[in-house]
Each structure stands twice: as structure tokens, then as C-alpha cells.
Amino acid sequence: MRLVICAALVAALLLVAFLARLPFAIEQPGITADTLGSHNGQRVITVTGHSTRPTVGNLRMTTIEVTGPDDLPNVSQVFHAWWDPARAVVPHEQVYPSGQSVEQVNQINQQAMTESQNSAVAAALGYLHLNPAQVKVTLRLADVGGPSAGLMFTLGIVDQLDGNGTGKAGAAGDLTNGQNVAGTGEIDDSGNVGAVGGVALKTRAAARDGATVFLVPRSECSDAKVDTPKGLLLVPVETLNQAVGALKALQNHDAANVPHC
């Protein structure tokens, strides 16, 4: 009887431990959105004050999804996510810092997105030598926060105004050459591309949605190469000029001038 009681107590303790919520968050591939098209019924990029050109192909920004602030995983969920290459386990405070409400975290992410959009517009118009006082670019992407869409926003603007990367608005041709191109990377007003994190999950989101080329900040090549989806070409970039140059080389089937991770 004592053995039975002890076994039952141990089993109960193990069950409690197994179901206990742990201070982690689980990340997985999120949505992608074509910056040349529409998302949730709204045009992602709208240009006024200058003519635009029709485009083909895709320039997809990529995201990751994360469990909610109160949705703490149990031992089983953490264990399975830890060994699943399509998911990542991170400390809860890395995503939801202590002392900040969910509203504050969302506000910070939205502010980062706004700043990223402003920098994308500045970088694109600077590259095309267009006067921002004469050309207005509006970017809309609901329910997405953070700065990581900067590079793809910039390329989307350039493609609609320029096309083949000449730096002269109104040129013919497409940056994508009809391909499904995805990528990630923060950008500043001068066109420098910065690291953003989560690239191993973003490559999976890109491949899931049909991308064959993925632009990645050069400093994150090693992370992007972890379990890279089959058929996805990783192209490292540090600047807008490099990104445009790599896409032009892909257009011309000039493999020697396309950098690889």
C-alpha cells in the first residue's frame, strides 16, 4: 500500500511538472507579403506625384510568429519545439521584456515599423535621385511590426519607379525578372542593410510561399544556412546597391556576380 501511495504521489508530481508552464516563447515562420502587390485588401506601396510602372514577380517581406505573452508553453511543448527545425524556443523576456505591458511592446514594434518605412522611402528616393518633396510614397502593412521589412519595402519602391536598377525613374524592366524573391533586413536612410534576427525561420516562410531567392543581411549568412529549404538561393547583401546589383545579375544569368552565403 505504501508503494502504491508513493508511486501515485510521484506520478502526480511528474504530471504537475510536465504540465507546468515555462518562461519561454515559441517562434515559427510567419506570413509573407509581396511589397509589389496588396495585403489584406490594401496596396502595400502607393506612389503619388510620379508615374509608376507595372511590375511582375514578387518582392516578399518575411515575418515570424510568436506565442502570446500569456501563452506560456509546458514541458512537452518546449521539448517538441526545441527539436523541431521549423520552430525556435527563446526566453520569454526576449520577446516580452519584464516591466512592459503588451500594449507597450506592440507600440514599440509599430514605432520600429514606422521608422523602417520612413528609411525605406528615403533610401529608395535617394537611390533614384528623386525629390521627396515632389514624390510621396505611402506604405501600408497591417498587423506587422518591427524594422525587418525595410530592405524589401525599398526594393518594392525602386521596382515600381525604376525597374531594372539603373537609378533612373521610369526605366523599363523588372528587378525580379518575374521571379518570386523574398528577403529580410533593416535599412537606413543611406541604404545600408542591417541584421534583424530570425532568418532561419524566415527562409522557411519564404520557401513555403514559393520564393526561390532570399536576400539576407551578410552578417546573418551563417544563421540563414541552418536547414536552408531546398531550392532557395541565399544572397547576402550589405547595401541597397548590392541588393539591386545581385538581382540584376540574376536577370542576366550572370552567376559569377551573384554573391552566395
Automatic annotation (TrEMBL):
This protein is called what?
S16 family serine protease
Q: Name one GO biological process term.
A: proteolysis
Which residue numbers delimit the Lon proteolytic domain? 146-225
Give one Pfam family, short name only.
Lon_C
List UniProt keywords, sorted A-Z.
Hydrolase, Protease
Give any GO molecular function from the UniProt entry. Answer: peptidase activity
The keyword Lyase belongs to this UniProt entry's keyword annotation: no
In the Enzyme Commission scheme, what number(s) does this protein have? Answer: 3.4.21.-
Which InterPro entries does the entry link to?
Answer: Lon_proteolytic, Ribosomal_Su5_D2-typ_SF, Ribsml_uS5_D2-typ_fold_subgr
Q: Keyword Hydrolase, does the record have it?
A: yes
